[in-house]
Structure formats: C-alpha cells, structure tokens
C-alpha cells in the first residue's frame, strides 16, 4: 500500500515545532515534526513487546515503546526523503532527548490548560483527508484499517498542543522596537519583504517575424476584440478557452502563479503595479505576439485602502419564551416604532440582545468591508446612508439595521508597520525558540533509566 501524505501542522508563530541541536536539523529535513504516522509502512499496530520506563521527566515518564515508535517513524520518513541519519547510539540519544523535551512541553501545556477538543481534531483530520484526495470518512476508515486511527488523533492533538504552547511562550519573549521597524522598512530586505504579490491571468495571441503585415494586423485586431469582450464582462478564462478552441490563431497562456512585480516579465511588471483588482490590460505588443492580462489577485503591498461602514442595529434572539416567528414579529414592531418617530438608540438599549452594542444604543461603529456576518453584509451593502432596513435574519438572530455613514480609510502605514513587525518577529522566533527549549530542558527533572 502506498503511504499517504501526512500534512504537517502549522499553528505556531514560526509555523513549526522546534527541537534543539542535531536532531532539530534533520527532523526539519524529513518533515516529520512530532512524528505524524505514515500509513502503510509502519507495523506498530502489529508489533507486541513488553514496555518499560526509560526516563522520568518531572511528573511523567518516557516509555521504551514511545522511543521505538518515534525512531521507526523518523527512519521511514528519512528513507522516503533520501536523507541520512545519525547511526547507532547517537540516533537513539537524539530521539530520546527530543521525546524528553516534548514531554516537558506537554506537561507545561497541561498546567496552563492548553487543550483541543474533538471537533478541532476532526477539522485537522478532514484537512489531512483532503490533502490525500479523500473524504473524512474514507480517511478515518483507512486509518482504522491500518490500526493507527487513535495513534494519529493523539499525535495530532500533541503536536497542536506543543505548537500552541510554543507560539504563546516564545512570542512573549520577543520585543520589536519602533527603531527596528524603521530600520527594516528602510532596508532593501524590508522593501522586498513587504512588496505586493500579484496573480495575473494571461492570454497570448502568438506572432512572429515571418508574419506578413496583413496577418499581424489581423492578429492585433483579434486580440483587441478579445480584450474588449473581457472588459465588457465575458469571463477571462472562458474567453481564453474559446479562443484556444477556435483555432483561428495560435493562442496560449502562461500560469505565473503568485509573484512580486519584479519577478514578472519586464513587459508586465510596471503595468501590473498600476492595475486595480479585476482590471484588464491589452493587447500588449511584444516580440512573440499580443498579450492580454487581468489582475486576478493581489496580496500585501503598502497600498491598503479599506472601505468602512458605520452601522447600528437591534438584534432579537429566539428563546424559551419567544419562538422564531414571534421574534420576527417583535423586531418588525420595533422597526415600525422607529419609523413612527421613536429613538433608535433608546429602543436598542431597552430591547437588543446584542451585549456588545446594547450600551452604545446598537452602534457597531466603523466596520471594515467583510467584517459583518455574510447575511448582514449582503443587506447593508444595498442600503443608502440613513436608510433603515427591513427585518433580516442571520445565524445570531433577527435584526434591523441603519447605515450611519460610509468612508474609505487609509490603513497603509499601520499595515506596513504590522508587516514589518511580523517579518522581524519571524526572524527572531527560531533563535528565541531554541533558547527557550534549552531553558525548560535544563529546569526539568530528568532521570534516565538504564
């Protein structure tokens, strides 16, 4: 049976679980982190052996079976990745030390009540199933067939627990000063790190030196007509497929993926930097033909203009003494009172079930676009300033809302500084993690049992 792709979890600030020394270096190479199970290649479920304690770690122990299982997993992962491992006693010692450090962290996580419920574990397993092109039930069945379902759940829970502990404990040790942020933003590395990345759709109507002037003119007109159709609303990818299928001219495309402007062909770099999301440019003439591009996605960058809406609402929730239909009727009656002249804020303070806004008379303040529940966003987007909505329902309850204002807010400076701080934090995280792990290992009581 082929082994499945057991996706490594990324929940910590630096996106990985870290162990110090030689072990940490080759654990990263084989990508086994805390040793998620590789199906089809481990016989742990079939192996029977007498267990024994090989290390006492504070209030817990490390068992021989844990060491054997981890060594097997690492050996198999290294073999698949064609990576060398230490031999003999050095390998055993390194793996044992990693288990001790893991044990110390799990005990610390337990003391500060870091726990993940079964629903959270199921969501992670569902993601792992999707990465293996399987449904959740199919994936669970396969794990059970291989006798590693409970072991896999435990490994996922342990890894998530350690990662959450590391993220919290290490981040609190890291300090980023305003001067560091300024220095980073002014450096070439900083400018590169915060530069926007773009995703462009592309069409090329090929042309060459052998084309006659008449053919080149026809190709240019064809490209221009195609660009106009897309600008007027035809789906870009549909138009591209139709042009390829028509076969009138040679039509092709390049999948550039996410790239920074300076990683795109020079022909597009300056154009893309000035485009807005969804904008189409073309035909762009080049030596190999006529190009049409569309800016399909943009991430990062220093230009962060955000649409905001100032809105207030009253929310009523169905309960033991009021059915859903009675709740809808009650919110409609409150709307009518406002229409008849009663004060919105007063009615909100007296009736709204939204604890976060009731004191403020239902005012939700300025909310970024996309910051409301989808059902509420859909209603608010259609409203004029000063308009009072009809009753509408979300997962939270029944609402009426009023739009108080709209604006475009420039968050460019805040966003840029946050990007810089995150980049600096990521650069410091690994070193601070290493130091923290050494510290907790030295403070722990550890007795090795011969």
Describe the fold and architecture.
The chain is of the alpha+beta class and 450 residues long. It has three domains: 233 residues, Porin chaperone SurA, peptide-binding domain (Triger factor/SurA peptide-binding fold); 104 residues, Chitinase A, domain 3, CATH 3.10.50.40; 105 residues, Chitinase A, domain 3 (Roll), CATH 3.10.50.40. The protein is built from 15 helices and twelve strands. The strands form three sheets. Strands 3, 4, 5, 6 and 7 form a five-stranded antiparallel sheet that branches. A hairpin with a 4-residue loop joins β10 and β11. α4 packs across α5 and α7 packs across α8. The longest helix is centred in the C-terminal third of the chain and has 32 residues.
Primary descriptors:
450 residues; alpha+beta; Triger factor/SurA peptide-binding fold; Chitinase A, domain 3; 3 domains; 5-stranded antiparallel β-sheet; 4-stranded antiparallel β-sheet; 15 helices; 12 strands; disordered N terminus
Task: Describe the structure in brief.
The chain is 48% helix and 17% strand.
According to CATH, what is the class of the largest domain? Mainly Alpha
How would you classify the helix and strand content by structural class?
alpha+beta
Relevant CATH superfamily of the largest domain = Porin chaperone SurA, peptide-binding domain
CATH topology of the largest domain: Triger factor/SurA peptide-binding fold
* Arithmetic mean of pLDDT: 86
Cα distance spanning the termini:
38 Å
In angstroms, what is the radius of gyration?
30 Å
Q: Describe the global form.
A: extended
Largest sheet: 5 strands, antiparallel
Q: What is the string of helix and strand elements?
A: HEEHHHHHHHEHHEEHEEEHHEHEEHE
